[in-house]
Every structure is written in C-alpha cells, then in structure tokens.
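Chapter review. Work through the record for Formate/nitrite transporter family protein before attempting the end-of-chapter questions.
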Amino acid sequence: MDQTDVKTLKPDELSPAETLAKAEGISVTKSKMGVEKCFVSAMLAGAFIGFGATYFMVFLGDSTMPFAAQRMVGGICFCLGLVLVLCCGAELFTGNNLMVTGLASKKISMGGMLKNWVVVWLGNLAGSLLAVALVFWANVGGMNGGAVGDVMVSVAVSKVTPDWFMLLGKGIMCNIMVCLAVWIGFSARTVADKVLGILLPISFFVAAGFEHCVANMFFLPTGLLMKTMGFGASVANVGALDLGAIFYNISAATIGNIIGGAVVGLAYWFIYNQKKVK
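Structure tokens for Formate/nitrite transporter family protein:
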C-alpha cells in the first residue's frame, strides 16, 4: 500500500456537520425518485422490517426465557430489518422522516417531501403485507408447537389495547431511536459501522415496547391472521384485535413517528446548519 492509499483511508465517522450535509443531500435524491421505483423500494423495506419482526417473534416463542433476556435478545433480532434497509438500500417511511432536514434548508419542497412520504408509506404497507403472506405460507406460526403463533397474537393484542395517546408517545420515542440509528448509518463509512450503530438504538426501542408504524403493518395483520387460525385463544383481551384496532394503532404510531423523526432531524439541523436560509 503506497502513501496515497494511506491518505485516502478514512475509518473515522463523518462529523455531525458532514452528516447533516449528507442527510440533506439524501433528502434531495429521495424527493426526485420516480414513483414506481420509490414504491418498489418501499415494498422491499416493508418486507425487510417484517423479516426482522418475524425473527423477534420466533425468539419470543420460547416462553422459558426470562423477561429481560427475551426483550434484549428479541430486540437484537429485530435489528435485522433496519440492517437490511440501510445496508442493502430501501425506502423506509420512518427513516425518511429525516427529510425534514432538506425541507428546513429549502433544498426540497413540502410537496416533494409529502409525496415521498405517502408513496413510501403505501409501499411499506404493501411490502409488509407481502411478508405476512410469506410467513403464513411458510407456517412460521406453527413453530414450537404453535407457541410462535400464540406470540404473534399476543404481540398484536398488546399493541391495540393501550390508550391512543400512550401509543402516540410510544411512536414518538420509537422514531427518535430509529432516526438516531439512521443518523449513525449516515455518518458511517463501512457496513460494520452501520450494523454496530444500529444495534443499541433499535434493540432499545423494541425492548421498551415503543411503536413503529411499519413494523406494526406486519405485526398487527399477522396477529389477526393467526387469531383467525385459532392461535392465541388464551391471550387476554384477544377480542380487541380486529381491523378497526389495526387502524387505531397505526394512526397513532404514524403520527408519533413523524413527530419523533422531525425532532431528531430539526434538532441536528438547528445545531449544525452552517448556511443561512433565505
């Protein structure tokens, strides 16, 4: 390796100001993406998050694990979803809430940002439902004598029974963590950096039971489907899980996620923006 090669190696992460500039540039790229490509990319992200959620619930299917160990390791399992999104490339609604940085710097328009959010939200939903179908086809719920199917119902019920404003708060907290993980991903120079940076924020939000609207696009339909198949009959308040309850949760989670993402993006824009916005 010659001297030139040594000088070009930069193992350290981007500075906060550099990360903000990168986030603004990414927001411009996202706002200009064609609808068809954006939708398919969002479908991938919805499916990826569904795969991480499946991993989480398969792990929770072992009821002999202590609570703390279940939450911690289950949270790490769920990280698979965002690892795939950031490292393989896909459009995730919650991460795209950081596009507010480009809006604040007037590099994108409100219309361009909202168009991206709507297309990506719908694409995430389509990809999540595709993942639900694949998990059903593979009979994942039947694993461990049906214990995984019971967990799928239990997780879904736990998400539709809290007060709407509690779900809103959980949604805000969730996307603060998700967007901080994405921010770390923006600052990283290697795949290993991205993966390691994702682990703690994402496993924390899962362990703490916060609400992620895209994950819930998978968790809730899966739970409802498993319920209709006879799983989770002994779960408390199982009758509360229906189509109306799914809308109830996702409406609160979506609004909360937008607020949480905006808090992260606008806070870093306020601190590190180096150009006056006219």
